[in-house]
Amino acid sequence: MYPDLQGLAAVLGLGARGRKLSEMALAAEIEQGLPIASLDNLVRAMTPDNNNLLAYRVVPRSTYTRRVDRGFLTPDESNRVARMADVWMAAKDVWQVDKDARDFLFREHPMLGGKQPFDVAFGSDIGARLVKDILGRLKYGSAA
Known about the structure:
Layout: H1 5-11, H2 23-32, H3 36-46, H4 53-58, H5 61-70, H6 75-95, H7 98-105, H8 117-123, H9 125-139
């Protein structure tokens, strides 16, 4: 069972539809392609002053307008957005304050070879697990 599925759905803007999502329903949404609004919601949460630079890492600037016109992300883009939303939720769970969660995600970390947790998590599912492992250690008082 996913720890905070409804919180994840809310960050992706899917909870506003007035229904609770199951894990299978969320997986189906990602497979079909999340609405572009899901990316926009995540960008506003993670980097409110960033002027879409984060969005352009998921979808290149030249492609972003086409996605807005179409209304949906591709399944691959949707998977990246959902992965980053998951890491964002984990960081917020540990730090409790958005600014502190952002500081963690965008500051170099020694356990990640001096890379920013965001960059490691953005790169792959394994990278996201490494970042979430560090967050779990911080939450439960282990060395991190």
